[in-house]
Amino acid sequence: MNKLKKFENRHLEKLKGLKKIPNFNSGDTVTVYVKIIERKRERTQAFEGVCIAKKNAGINSSFTVRKISYGEGVERVFPLYSPNVARIEIKTKGRVRRAKLYYLRNLSGRKSKITEDKTAEKKDAENNINKDKIDNNKLEKKNEEQKKEKEKNEKSTKKSKKENQGEIKK
Predict the structure, then answer these.
(1) Helix, strand or coil, per DSSP, at residue 139
(2) 169 pLDDT band (50/70/90 cuts)?
C-alpha cells in the first residue's frame, strides 16, 4: 500500500469517527441536509429525493440524489464525507435490482416510482431492538462498575479518616 492510500485511510477513519453516516443504497429515498453559508449566516437546506447512484471510492465516495421540482428533474451529487453535508436521513428503503438507476431520467410520473422494501424495515426494526438491548446491557454494566468504584472510594476515605483520627489521638 502506497503512502497516499495510507494517508487517505487514516483520514477516512477520523472522518468516520466524527460523522455518523447511515447505510443506504441506490433506490432509497433520502433527505440530505446541506450547510449553506450566505455572507455571515449559516443555514441548512434539505434536499429530498431518490438516491440513483452511489460511488464507493474511499475518501472520494459520493452519491447522486434525484428529485422532481416543479415538473423538472433535478439531480445533485454529494461527496459522502463533505463537511457541507450536515446529515443524511433515510426516509424509505427502495427495492431495486440495479446499482445505478440512470434509467429513471427517461421515466416520468408513476413509471418512475420505486417500490418500497418492506423487509428492510423489519430488519431495521429488529436491529434497533437488538442494539437497544446491547446498549442497555452496557449501561447496566457501567452502572455496576461505577457503584463498585464509589464503594471502594468510600471505604478508602473512611479508612484514611480513621487513621488520621488515630494519629491525632496519639
Answers:
(1) helix
(2) low
Topology of the domain covering 3-116? SH3 type barrels. (2.30.30)
Q: What is the DSSP letter of 57?
A: -
Q: Residues 87, 23, 105, 79: is their CA dihedral positive or negative?
A: positive
Query: In which residue are the cell numbers 455571515 written?
Result: 40
Q: Would you list the domain boundaries of the chain?
A: 3-116, 118-170
CA atoms within 13 A on the CB side of 27: 14
Band of residue 108 on the pLDDT scale cut at 50, 70, 90: confident
Residue 46: strand, helix, or coil: strand
pLDDT higher than 80, residue 6 = yes
Under 8 Å between Cβ of 28 and 50? yes
What's the rounded Cα separation, in Å, for the pair 168 and 160?
A: 12
